[in-house]
Design a protein that fits this description.
- The chain has one domain: TonB-dependent receptor, beta-barrel domain (Maltoporin, Chain A), CATH 2.40.170.20.
- By secondary structure, it is mainly beta.
- It has 6 helices and 33 strands.
- It starts with 7 loop residues before the first helix and ends with a strand.
- It is globular.
Length: 685
């Protein structure tokens, strides 16, 4: 294992020193400014570029703000208000707020969106995944500019290794999107859209410090190189020391040291052809488990650590074919190595993911369409547990057509046919309708999707492979999702309500068994659950704007149940609150500062494998944010968890004995960090 804190101080300064040097070079190159035409195309060129998932346009008017966003998460680029598919957009203003709260990763960006829950999957290492409308986190596809840069089936720890520094917006599709992106998007898609260089060089450096001995430094630099070429660079360093908040010898907040870098290139030719390319690098050492000298209840010590290294790359090339047709070729590759320790159990593994895709698209006055071919491959190899190695190759054929029936009614139909090397032929359709009578907006969607199981359900991500039996006779997981979304704008008030339902069959889950006759339950195997999981619910969102004030309120109701074969009855899905709500109030003046307050409520959740309780306590999370801008410097302070909510105040986190899957802790159902303050400065150039 590599030394966790080696060369910490000197390495932590490298991204900062490097960023100032690149910034100087970028300013020197700014005399060759990128023409506005290289960033903002004509209307026809915009349509072609947006189909590549590579373009957005924001227009602002002083006084009344008008925002036009061309989303890229669907296969045909359209204004978000014209999309039959419901897409929620987190804009750059909100991204800047969340980046001040947590500049090291994107977890807070999505956690405070209605219907989205970030669930901690490993209390030892702090890893988490994203659950959309109650569906399991492994069903959510995480993309960057429409590319699977984090893998076809991103590990839960990956969510904590992506900084938000260079994002322009985040687009979220809830419900099955397998018709658009294949089996990894059965629960939905989160697409991280990067910032584009403007016609002048620009730079940003952010320093952040927390009361829990955490530090972050992130940089963003962008500059034109020629009239048709622009480049950007994002780099960062992040450190968190281990924290044992209840003094029981178990690390409640994992320690880590992480460094990231991502250059991007944007090119556009005079004919309208475009090229986007990126390369990313990430290295992290993460440490959890017991502190030295503190034994567990059985007298043993349990160090848990994970060293990660990820290299990825991707490109999108587009071009016109006459007046109404365009072509698109995109590809991505990701290689990630892990060095893991779970007590005395060690593992070294390698994940690989590859994508190559080609499409042809066109439009008429009433319609837009796209057809394409894709080839996706996912690989996993373990040095210590080769019986779990897998290799998936998935060629696919897909198509999408959007048609405007009249001024009020439009529709979108997408279909994908995959030939999965392990799970056979899979057909994934989705139909969406948009109806806009006067000031109302009504959207309805129905879709079917599938998910290709791997050994890495949430519990195995947290505990490793040592106690898992080899997979036998596992079927693919399938889901049918539907939703009805109704919205209306009342002057300064925006209201939206969504009703949704999902039925999931063949859900994979762990089943405990005894490795010896009459022995304790000390091993687990992966099985397809009997019956189906049924998830019904509704979301309510209200947003009110008045001058410099904005208030957003949200409420989510979930009725999520699964079949229990032991009792022949249905039970709530664990760690799924029936009721949750949020309120965010913000005052902001551009160029001067902002003050914000947030309050989030999480209701009671069913717990499993917890000897201390069978149901969680409801709790509130309160936060305050303040920022003042003085010229190029913005100073900020943020207080999280004002009520000092912490799960270990209620019960111990450590179990009396090790669970059958290998974990030594209960699930995280509440906060685990207590009251925390972070503060820093953002410098723009």
């Amino acid at each position: 294992m590599r030394s966790f804190y080696s060369c910490k101080t000197s390495l932590f300064l490298i991204p900062t020193l490097f960023s100032f040097q690149v910034l100087a070079d970028a300013k020197e190159a700014s005399s060759h400014q990128l023409a506005p035409a290289a960033v903002h195309n004509s209307h026809e060129q915009n349509s072609q570029l947006d189909r590549a998932g590579d373009k957005h346009e924001d227009e602002h008017e002083h006084g009344d703000e008008v925002e036009t966003i061309t989303v890229s998460s669907t296969r045909v680029g359209r204004n978000v208000s014209d999309e039959p598919v419901r897409i929620e957009v987190i804009n750059q203003e909100e991204l800047e707020e969340k980046a001040m709260m947590r500049p090291g990763n994107i977890s807070m960006l999505v956690a405070e969106t209605g219907g989205v829950r970030v669930q901690t999957t490993s209390p030892a290492l702090g890893s988490a995944n994203i659950r959309l409308q109650g569906l399991y986190g492994r069903y959510t596809q995480l993309l960057n500019d429409g590319l699977a840069l984090y893998g076809g089936q991103a590990a839960s720890i990956g969510l904590l290794q992506i900084p938000p520094t260079d994002l322009a917006r985040v687009e979220i599709i809830k419900g099955s999107a397998s018709s658009l992106y294949g089996g990894s998007a059965m629960g939905g898609v989160i697409n991280l859209v990067s910032r584009r260089p403007s016609d002048e060089a620009e730079g940003e450096v952010l320093f952040n410090f927390t009361s829990r001995d955490g530090q972050d430094v992130t940089t963003y630099l962008a500059a034109p190189v020629t009239d048709s070429l622009g480049v950007s660079l994002t780099a960062g360093g992040h450190h968190q020391s281990t924290q044992d908040l209840d003094d029981d010898g178990w690390i409640d907040m994992a320690g880590y040291e992480r460094y990231t870098a991502r250059p991007r290139l944007f090119w556009e030719g005079e004919s309208g052809a475009t090229l986007y390319a990126t390369v990313g690098y990430m290295t992290e050492n993460r440490q959890g488990g017991t502190l030295e000298g503190y034994p567990l209840p059985d007298g043993s010590f349990f160090e848990q650590s994970q060293d990660s290294e990820r290299i990825d790359s991707g490109f999108i090339a587009t071009g016109p074919l006459g007046d109404v047709l365009s072509w698109n070729v995109r590809g991505s590759a990701m290689v990630q190595n892990h060095d893991k320790q779970f007590g005395e159990d060690l593992d070294e593994d390698r994940h690989e993911s590859y994508l190559l895709e080609s499409t042809l698209s066109g439009y008429t006055d009433k319609s837009q369409w796209v057809v394409g071919l894709a080839m996706q491959s996912d690989r996993f190899e373990s040095d210590y547990y080769p019986e779990f190695d897998y290799s998936f190759d998935v060629p696919g054929l897909f198509a999408q057509a959007d048609y405007e029936l009249n001024e009020q009614l439009s529709t979108s139909l997408s279909m994908r046919l995959d030939d999965h090397s392990e799970y056979g032929t899979q057909l994934s359709p989705r139909l969406s309708l948009l109806y806009r009578p006067e000031d109302w907006t009504v959207r309805a969607s129905y879709g079917r999707g599938y998910f290709a199981p791997t050994p890495f359900v949430e519990e195995i991500e947290a505990a490793g492979l040592s106690r898992l039996a080899p997979l036998v006779n596992i079927e693919e997981e399938t889901a049918i999702t539907s939703s009805l979304d109704i919205g209306r704008q009342f002057d300064q008030l925006e209201a939206n309500v969504t009703f949704f339902a999902s039925n999931v069959e063949h859900v994979t889950e762990l089943e405990a068994y005894a490795s010896e006759i009459d022995g304790p339950l000390d091993r687990v195997r992966l099985v397809n659950a009997q019956g189906e999981s049924r998830i019904y619910g509704s979301e309510l969102m209200l947003r009110y704007k008045w001058n410099d004030f904005k208030v957003t309120a949200s409420y989510l109701f979930l009725d999520a149940t699964e079949y229990n074969a032991t009792t022949d009855s249905r039970q709530d899905i664990k760690l799924t609150p029936k009721h949750s709500a949020g309120l965010v109030a913000m005052w902001e003046q551009h160029g001067k500062g902002r003050v914000g307050f947030e309050a989030y409520y999480t209701g009671t959740q069913r717990l499993a494998g917890n000897p201390y309780r069978s149901a969680s306590e409801p709790y509130w999370h309160l936060g305050l944010l303040g920022e003042i801008t003085l010229g190029q410097f913005s100073w900020f302070i943020n207080a999280e968890n004002l009520l000092n909510i912490r799960q270990t105040k209620e019960d111990p986190l450590v179990l009396p004995m090790r669970a059958a899957d290998g974990q030594w802790t209960t699930d995280i159902w509440s906060r685990n960090d207590g009251f925390t303050v972070n503060a820093g400065v953002r410098m723009r150039f």
